[in-house]
């Protein structure tokens, strides 16, 4: 079951007239700002509700940053070092601020950040970008989007890496299914708690993740999630890991997809019970513009080296999001932060059965894509590749250098996923005070986040783990050779489970080693 949050249309506002907008002959069309065609979308006419857009700036040294990240042995930069070498130029920040304020847009921005969060009534937003904004209905949702290409003042356009929220787009979704879902039903319906998973995978009692912090990226009001985490920890006699919530753009008015964030927080902490903190960056909604702002704050603060994102969007249907978020994820990688992203629950397709697309940000070369396996026999210790595990090659993003030695079934020059996998079915959780059992790469992703926190206790200086995931001895993975998600699992790396399942005790030692 997919839980999808409809994009609400804000209360109607009086049309406002933007002021100090550059004349069209002094503007440039920016690649990626053209209106995005949504199959089957119905144009409902001009919009007057509030619209939110995230604009991301280029690095002041794009070529240098690309060369830096292409070296799998690159250093881990502090925030100050990144800003000095690769952050946006102060002149570019000033240009965007001057333009946005002059155009009547409400601006949220941290000095030195690449991300600008912009908000205004749709007619004002349309005036700022020299286009028009309409309401569209698609797949039962109502969204706002421009009807033609957007334009920006030339200095702003030259500094802009990406922009999301102007073109009409469906919002992100969670990679979560109920355990008994018809499509994703596991072969062995045997709900398991954290103690049973720990026993099955022979997880050591130490390290516990002491001194480490994990960030969860999501959306919704989190009061119920905080209560459910405390109840889960009490139920399974786990330490009370402190949970903090950062409502990045203000607390949402409603609760959406609570089950997802219950799962993420409960199993990230269960797998690393010694954590100092689990921190949720809660976006205002699952619109990609809001999520870009949340991811941007995670990278800007550079306080949480492990991030867990059990969410995504079909990359070819969200090209504007890819363009806006990739600069943020490049910054996170340069600073040694690792984003673990769910590879999706539709096999070689994407959310809702969209044919042959990958889920983003799992398809980013600056994230680790976590796929899913399925325990089919607990006593016989049998595991197979889960048929929902998202896998395939990105259509948009190139293969990172650290995947050059992937081997196995890997083909082509585009980013391949997943990178590794873990159990994705039969997870017992506390949801809204009651019991539930869920499945999905939403489950495997926070588990691997917890394991990575354990690794970082052993080696706190560990940076972005992409290169190391592929360079450690393959004997630290269980090679999963059965299962089919539209492609068949087989010896070595495959499009169902990647390198396979970490053999926990071996993987912890290998990943922490020099």
Describe this structure in words.
With 514 residues, the chain is α+β, with helices and mostly antiparallel strands. Helix content is 27%, strand content 25%. The chain folds into two domains: 24-164, no CATH class; 173-512, 3-Layer(aba) Sandwich (Rossmann fold), CATH 3.40.50.200. The strands form eight sheets. Strands 12, 13, 14, 15, 17, 19, 20 and 23 form an eight-stranded mixed beta sheet that branches. The protein is globular, with a radius of gyration of 22 Å. The two termini are 42 Å apart.
What would you say about this model in short?
This protein has 13 helices and 27 strands.
How many domains would you count in the coordinates?
2
What general form does the structure show?
A: globular
Low-confidence stretches: 1-22
Quote the CATH topology of the largest domain: Rossmann fold
- Distance separating the two termini: 42 Å
CATH architecture of the largest domain: 3-Layer(aba) Sandwich
Output the CATH homologous superfamily of the largest domain: Peptidase S8/S53 domain
H/I helix tally: 13
CATH classification class of the largest domain: Alpha Beta
The percent range for strand residues is 15-25%
- What radius of gyration results from the CA coordinates? 22 Å
Largest sheet: 8 strands, mixed
Total beta-strand segments: 27
Q: Mean of the pLDDT scores?
A: 91
> Percentage of helical residues?
25-40%
Structural class computed from helices and strand pairing: alpha+beta
